[in-house]
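debug: dumping io for the single-chain case to check the tokenizer round-trip. Nothing else runs in this session.
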Amino acid sequence: MIIFDKIHKSFDANHVLRGINLTIDRGQSMVIIGGSGSGKSVLIKTVLGLVPPDKGKIFIDNKDMVEVKRDNFLNKFGMLFQGGALFDSMSVWQNVAFRLQRGHLKKSKDEAREIAIEKLRRVGLAPDVADRMPAELSGGMQKRVSLARAIAADPEIIFFDEPTTGLDPIMAGVINDLIREIVVEMGATAMTITHDMTSVNTIADKVAMLHGGVIQWCGNISDMAHSSDPHVEQFIHGYAEGPIETLR
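debug: decoded output
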């Protein structure tokens, strides 16, 4: 469903991505791990079209992204942003239904509201939340609203950017479980970037370790704990010593 083919990206003298090769199969949940500054966010921005790669190609559903109409691509994906990114001037249901009344979907207000309430139920929120404002909700509820918005248009691909940032361990566990359930239920292809190993173990079918601008290791989640790759071993155990340099 998604193929990164020799992706390079630099910002002046900072060579962030140095030839990324990665394939995400249809219906697969791929989690990309790596330390701060390893290029995870840049990688996800390349596939979203926010940052053009300097070299290499990205294929979505076997089509070169350069040749795909932007609207056609946007129709395929949903996104859960790290900070939630809810519109504070819109009610909860309007946030969830934001896409439904635009582009090719063009749902009526009543239909969009009905779908929004259904998606809110799917993430464990009661219908009476629909007319509240984001500022009236806890951080965990805001994250659920963001997840409901990500799945509102039943996307084929869902991107998750550090989905549990800012949440306490209990709520983080709830969000991880919801993400896993929804991805499996929808049969969607998922790409997640995170440094939270609890998220990795809950969400992932496969894991890719990004370091030094390349994929150092990629394999099934069941193989990660005994991968024998020193980058993976250092990261998952949180060792200070190893090939991943730490600031002192």
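debug: round-trip ok. Residues 86-154 form one domain.
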